[in-house]
UniProtKB/TrEMBL annotation:
Residues 1-27 are annotated as: Disordered. Pathway: Glycolipid biosynthesis; glycosylphosphatidylinositol-anchor biosynthesis. It is a multi-pass membrane protein. Keywords: Endoplasmic reticulum, Glycosyltransferase, GPI-anchor biosynthesis, Membrane, Transferase, Transmembrane, Transmembrane helix. GO terms for biological process: GPI anchor biosynthetic process. The keyword Transmembrane helix applies. This is Mannosyltransferase PIG-V. Coiled coil: none annotated. GO terms for molecular function: alpha-1,6-mannosyltransferase activity; GPI mannosyltransferase activity. It comes from Frondihabitans australicus. GO terms for cellular component: membrane. InterPro entries: PIG-V/Gpi18.
Length: 413
């Protein structure tokens, strides 16, 4: 197999960054999907089984009083908390059914639409009821989490081999905040679109990459960062900064963002506010632009404030820790000249670290799959295997902690 550079592209002819590029070798196209499918399935089943049993144990033995969601209790509400209720409301009634909608437009429609579609397929001929939608939303998160694992396995396997690929999938599905891949949240669907957009981009299938990225952009605002990163991958693959390369990159970015632009146009038409999404973020989550050091100090102040609740303080501290770790990972990606990954990770971090606080930064690390691959790459490193082992151990411990908090309805980022 031809060696791949840090962006997952082949060396050969001259490139923009001075490395070499060649056409993708036929061996890449002939690699069997069987190991990725079976390996991911095994990891997915084990992690889901452990999380389910652990969640049941927590709810039945905890001395804390769990926060009960205002929906019928069932298996599908075991991990139904916080933003899950917003997604259910959108899937059930749309954005503006209530007289005073609670800034629902901050949540993009991709995941609620997928949940509603799954419900209509499972329960045809019936109006979507809340119990049915809970099943649909659960499936719209569960299935994409498996799909994302398969895609990550293939990308990592092409670059580092099957052992590292298995390690990357374990880090993804059993990561510190992977409870959000099991909950009724949009992370799974976004990752499935994003990982396979990346997979196709690395093989020069720009239309497929753009269409999949359009799905990601309809699911989470992070699709903006993915779109720009894919544009960089297009330029790297082309090798030279020609007019054709630039037009192709612009086309991929435009296609990737088309669904998001359509959603913003819809919001502007309904609300009369062309910045309706940003308004909802400011009103509902108090997000405003702040320089990174002020935002970091505010987050650290929250972590050290004894007047705040223990769960809030713990998560604020984790936000700071994850910011440092992600920045360190960004440096590694830059040293490896993985420019598409640098753009994806760097722009995501920049947006989160210039908000009022580092709100949700640690959870957002779940979406930064190039960092997951980077940690996994140390699994076979001759002298730095400890990086992978330490990362895996910390991930599993934090997964249990965050799952405990989330199941009880305590603050979990």
């Amino acid at each position: 197999m031809t060696a791949l550079d840090g962006a997952g592209l082949d060396r050969g002819a001259p490139r923009l960054d001075g490395s070499r590029r060649a056409s993708p070798p036929p061996s890449l196209a002939r690699v069997s999907w069987r190991p990725a499918l079976l390996g991911t399935a095994a990891i997915w089943v084990v992690v889901r089984l452990v999380l389910t049993v652990y969640s049941l144990v927590v709810t039945s033995t905890s001395t804390a009083v769990p926060v009960q969601p205002a929906v019928p209790h069932s298996f599908f509400t075991l991990l139904y908390h916080w933003d899950s209720s917003y997604f259910l409301e959108i899937a059930h009634n749309g954005y503006f059914a209530a007289a005073d909608p609670p800034d629902l437009q901050a949540f993009l429609p991709g995941y609620p639409l997928a949940g509603r579609l799954a419900t209509l397929v499972l329960f045809p001929g019936q109006g979507p009821t809340v119990p049915h939608l809970l099943v649909g939303l659960w499936l719209a998160a569960a299935i994409p989490s498996f799909v994302a694992g398969v895609g990550l396995w293939r990308i990592t396997e092409d670059r580092f081999g099957p052992r590292v690929a298995a390690g990357a999938v374990v880090l993804l599905l059993a990561g510190p905040y992977s409870v959000f891949l099991a909950a009724s949240y949009s992370e799974s669907l976004f990752l499935a679109f994003a990982v396979f957009a990346w997979y196709h981009a690395l093989r020069g299938r720009w239309w497929a990459a753009g269409l999949l990225a359009a799905g990601a952009s309809l699911t989470r605002i992070d699709g903006v960062f993915l779109a720009v990163a894919l544009g960089v991958v297009v330029l790297q693959e082309h090798g030279r900064l020609t007019r054709r390369a630039v037009l192709r990159a612009v086309g991929v970015v435009a296609l990737s963002l088309s669904t998001l632009v359509g959603y913003f146009v819809y919001l502007a038409a309904v609300t009369g506010d062309p910045l309706s999404w940003l308004t909802a973020e400011r009103h509902g989550w108090h997000r405003r632009f702040t320089v990174p050091w002020v935002s970091g100090l505010e987050t650290l102040r929250t972590a050290l404030d004894p007047a705040r609740s223990s769960p809030l303080r713990a998560q604020a501290l984790l936000e700071v820790v994850f910011a440092i770790l992600c920045l360190a990972g960004l440096v590694v990606l830059a040293r490896r000249r993985r420019w598409g990954a640098v753009i994806l990770v760097g722009s995501t971090l920049a947006s989160l670290m210039t908000s009022t606080t580092y709100l949700s930064l640690s959870r957002e690390s779940l979406l930064l799959f190039p960092l997951t691959m980077t940690v996994a790459s140390y699994r076979d490193h001759p002298s730095r295997r400890w990086v992978f082992r330490a990362g895996l151990a910390a991930s599993i411990l934090l997964l249990f902690f965050n799952t405990h908090q989330f199941v009880l309805g305590l603050w979990t980022q």
